[in-house]
Amino acid sequence: MSVYLKEHAPCGIYCKRCPGVKVYKCKGCREQNGQIKDFPVCKTYECVTSRGYKFCYECEDFPCEKLQPIVNFEIFLPHNSKIYNLLMIKKHGIVKWNEICEKKSDLYYKGRKIQFGGDPLTLEKKKPNLYKKKQ
Hints:
Layout: H1 3-6, H2 19-23, H3 43-50, H4 82-92, H5 94-110
Helix pairs in contact: 4-5
């Protein structure tokens, strides 16, 4: 198995960002056949591998319900980046994505979208628009 596949789950999770690596000494779902510790086998892993794919994006049903933000820890890092990661793998290929995913995931998790007048998605106090025409 290539190192690239080992570090990226079929669902798009970048394994180095997964808390299961530290908490459960997980080696990645590919190496563990979709079963982490004593949890049930991952349904997404079963689906992808049973269809003969390496990643979800290869499937004609992508994106499907298994990647919905409301299921299986989707609000937690790194689960909430699955679709983004899958689309980047599809766009760049696994080798290129592996080269840039650390930086990109830093931006995704630690970055902040900046918008003139403040970011409406944060609770920060809004700053005035610096480009507003004075009258």
